[in-house]
Specification:
The chain is of the alpha/beta class and 355 residues long. It has 13 helices and twelve strands. The structure holds zinc ion.
Length: 355
């Protein structure tokens, strides 16, 4: 089996095709999101089900297959099925879709996801890391499309920190499907333990989980009255709650997002210096805190990245998006990026190229 480093050169995603549709699935620890999609008409239908992770992997696979069959049955009367795409939490080994032990999905390690789905459905399924799928969607349907840029790196700040790299419209998978794991770029020599088993990774400093942890740490010092009051009122406080406190001027809450921006800036310095891409996107649930973390991010980036200093856009460039500059911006598709990327997979790759 030849091991792909990039997905096969894609025929240009053709938006005029109206009689074909795909089914995309975004497999998450909380939800299974399904959509039927046509390049010309966009999302034809979308369905969200809870992921029955507690009931075990057979139950989840059964729900996936039932949801896929349902959408195929409803839309294949008027259109031809182009294929089925699925985004799954990583690490997932490609092209076979072998899941490794996932912190948020206990019991799924060792599951041959693609083979299992194909056996159940009797048809080909294209599997991709969910963060790679999200980056693909941002490239063809989101910020990349808006700016006319076909190469980008996206960081998704959610429960963890996901990453995906798109080069000239193709997903960079690497040899095993493990490329683009920017959440595990090391930023501190002696840092916090990470869910991956390492320490000093970006993820424990720049995820939703990290905001809650930092808030609890600050409360434990006894010198963060605003955060302590928040936690007393609502023990299940969210990163958004901490963000609102910061926006209201609470110095301890503000510091949490400054530290997060610093961590992201250090990680991005390494990535920008390595890749020299035109566009780096930040997405995921923490994006609404952009104004709180971005100043520290850019400060760090300017001081650490030689390549960024050489290519930093001027205020004018930020309006016109002149070529040859490094743009670091917000992703556009929000929580839809994952399932939209899954929907695009059958249109931008050919399943046979992955075997
Ligand atoms: Zn890690």
């Amino acid at each position: 089996v030849s091991r792909p480093v990039m997905r096969a050169a894609a025929p240009v995603f053709d938006r005029t095709i109206s009689d074909e549709f795909s089914v995309g699935v975004d497999f998450g620890g909380t939800n299974l999101r399904f959509a039927a999609y046509s390049p010309k008409d966009g999302v034809l239908e979308s369905v969200t089900l809870p992921s029955r992770v507690k009931d075990g992997r057979d139950a989840v696979v059964a729900d996936m297959c039932a949801g896929i069959r349902d959408l195929i049955a409803r839309h294949s009367k008027s259109r031809k099925l182009k294929g089925i795409g699925m985004g799954s939490p990583g690490p997932i080994e490609l092209p076979g879709g072998l899941l490794h032990d996932l912190p948020n999905l206990p019991g799924f390690g060792g599951l041959e996801l693609r083979a299992t789905l194909e056996k159940n459905l009797g048809t080909a399924v294209i599997i991709e890391n969910d963060a790679n799928a999200a980056a693909l969607a941002e490239c063809f349907l989101g910020r990349g499309k808006t700016l006319g840029i076909d190469s980008l790196c996206m960081m998704t700040l959610g429960t963890g920190v996901g990453g995906g790299i798109i080069l000239q419209g193709n997903i960079l998978d690497g040899m095993n499907g493990f490329a683009g794991e920017v959440g595990h770029v090391n930023i501190w020599t002696d840092g916090l333990r990470c869910g991956c088993g390492g320490h000093g990774c970006t993820e424990p400093y720049a995820s939703a989980t990290s905001v809650r942890r930092a808030a609890k740490d600050a409360i434990a010092t006894g010198t963060a009255p605003g955060l302590a009051a928040l936690a007393a009122k609502n023990p299940d406080f969210t990163p958004r709650d901490v963000g609102l406190l910061a926006e209201a001027g609470d110095a301890d809450a503000i510091r949490i997002f400054e530290n997060l921006g610093q961590a992201l800036g250090i990680a991005l310095s390494a990535i920008v210096n390595t890749l020299n891409l035109p566009l780096y996107l930040i997405g995921g649930g923490l994006l609404n805190a952009w104004d709180l973390f971005a100043p520290a991010l850019f400060k760090e980036l300017r001081s650490r990245s030689y390549i960024y200093r050489l290519t930093e856009p001027s205020a004018e460039d930020l309006r016109t998006h002149r070529e040859g500059k490094t743009y670091i911006e917000k992703a556009e598709l929000g929580g839809d990026a994952g399932f939209l990327g899954a929907c695009l997979l059958p249109f931008t790759t050919w399943p046979e190229a992955r075997r």
